[in-house]
Amino acid sequence: MKENRFMRALPYAVLVCAFLLSVGMYALYGGHNLNSDLSSDIVFADLLNKEGKLITDNWYYSTELRIVSAVPFYQLGLLIFDSWHAARTLAVALMLALSAASMVFLGRQANMPLTGVYGAAALMLPVSYTSMFLFTYGGCYTVYIIMVCLILGLLAGLEQGRRSVRFVLLALIGFWGGLNGVRLLMICAAPLLLASVLEWYLSMRACRSIREAVRGEAAVYVWGTLVVCAAIFAGYFVNVCFISKQYEFMNFSAIENLGLQPREVLKQMQYVLEYFGLRTKGHIMSLGGLATLAALGLAALAAISVLRMILERRQMLGAQRLVLWFALMAVAVGIVLNMLTGMSMYTERNSVAYYLPGLLLLVLMMFFYIG
Fold this sequence. Notes:
Elements: H1 2-29, H2 36-51, H3 71-80, H4 84-109, H5 113-123, H6 129-136, H7 142-156, H8 163-179, H9 183-204, H10 210-215, H11 217-241, E1 256-257, H12 262-275, H13 287-311, H14 318-340, E2 341-342, H15 356-370
Antiparallel strand pairs: 1-2
């Protein structure tokens, strides 16, 4: 009995340790890790607190409005602490806790509970500068990752009942994300639509009638996807036609079609490996060298796991396949967009940011397969 209790508690103990380690490292050393993006978010949060608002016209919003961002967490931190570092530490702790909760929720809804717990523990660790900036500490995409996990979790659990409630929640989350601009369309709506249609098509081939295909589990995922995509488009419509006309920010008109270059494929692979710790310079037996070996090993293990899951997909549940298809589609769509678009004034194309949710979910599915 005691052994069973210990084994049930072990995954959550690992998750708590990973959370305390990540937050503790930022509390101790994060005060020295600040750039223009992070500092401007703190200044912006302070301005919003002084004005008593969540959005203001006394700010130039760069490439998008900050409706979906880490700024509200910074606002809360600044209301409690006078120190910007203490405020950011609290914000980091809250965002990591919510991201872990959303991954655990997704894991439970897709009938892979241990995967959600261990995956959340591993993915919140600050393994590279890119991961720290985009997810763990910088908060650039943390809120989006939370939203994607919640959306996938709600979709995966549609067969468990309370569909009307889930549809309403999907619509609310999608509309909120769409209000911020085009980003959720790229990193969630497009790959989710492709993933749900693929799952429906593969399931339809095994159906004996059209009625069975329309009412099956995979069809429910398509209906849920259409709800959330419609909500995202509705929010984006409000952003373009109403909100964006009241505030100043740089739009995406400077984005160009730069054409496909073969070397960009390898460049995107390098970005992926760098997120998980790859170092392009340094001795192989140094800490950076060991991190490089770990990144290469993780990439190989993830690739083998994904290939095996594709071949053995009939042994997986529909919800699990949906997460797998979404992760693959999100990475594929993001890489293609990165390779084809950009600004000619910059020599580097976009990094893993636009397919980060898919990338993290691929690792999550790797944990599911090897578990």
